[in-house]
Amino acid sequence: VHMTLLSVLCLRHVPALTYLHIEEYLLRATSKNWLIINDGVASHDSSIGGGGGASSSSHLPFHQNDLPRPSPTPRYGDSAGIGSTAILGLGGKLHEWVDTHEAASLNVPVIRRFTGGGAVLVDTDTIFVSTIMNDSDAAVAHVEPYPGPIMQFISELYTPAWKGLLTLRENDFILTNTNKKFGGNAQAITKGRWLQHTSVLWDTNVDVMTRVLRSPTRRPKYRGTREHSDFVVTLKDVWDGDRASFVDAVLEAPMRYDVRWSCAPEDAREVLKAYEYARAHTNVRIGSKEVPL
Q: What is the distance between the alpha carbons of residues 236 and 243, in angstroms, rounded to a whole number?
């Protein structure tokens, strides 16, 4: 029986741009399947560093605890957005998705990621979940390498974690039996491999989100004309348990397939290479980068 190996990388408080560089490196420069979680997105000004302490996921093969999160000095007068980062999809037009004046006045940096999709506002209450797969692997050989089928597979893969609370609708993860969204999605599809990235809103500052992110001109039908404040729901308000229990549920969900975690030494070497790449901010093909306001 073919067994899929899923190398697991569990992170905490890694800044968004650093995470995107790590994610892209593992997609393009390795041949492994990966499940990557970043529990809390640190301030964009933070840097990678060592940390200590334990967490509910300390049994995983890799864990970067409590990375330093220095408070940046406000560039302007309003500090409400400090700690938040706006992330824009690869093909999105900046002024259609982001109010650059508000972003600058609220001290919210904007990053253009290497994956597609719209725009999302992230902070320490956002959980990143990324799945990277070889499309020839037995576990996903039936999944056509296009956004729709990939999203459907990811939805089914993590069904045990959702506990019936969450479901897929028009390529959005929403609260079941409601029309409210709790997570944004993006994909990158390369020759023989694909990546699915979900930004889960455990909590969020809806006021900052509403001021920084514009309502997109193209919207899913179920959204209608609603603004962010009427369209977005945070997971903490509906989840039966704490944040750590959600992360653990996501990590355990793939085990119902013929999937096992990989803890091989070469996985650690690949992660160290990814960190070095992220530190160097060297773009691979497309690359993610900060957008000047």
A: 7
**Confidence grade of residue 51 (pLDDT, cut at 50, 70, 90):** very low
Three-state DSSP class for residue 244: helix
- Write out the two tokens for 11: 């992170």
| CB of 68 closer than 8 Å to CB of 47 | yes
The pLDDT value given to residue 7: 86
Q: Write out pLDDT tens, residues 232-243.
A: 778 888 888 899
Q: What are the DSSP E strand ranges found in the chain?
A: 4-12, 33-39, 63-64, 85-88, 110-112, 119-122, 126-134, 166-169, 172-175, 181-190, 193-201, 259-262, 289-291
Residue 115: closest CA among 169, 14, 171, 196: 196
- β-bridge pairing 4-12 and 259-262: parallel
Contact criterion met (CB below 8 Å) for 181 and 174: yes
The radius of gyration of the chain from alpha carbons, rounded to an integer in Å, stands at: 18
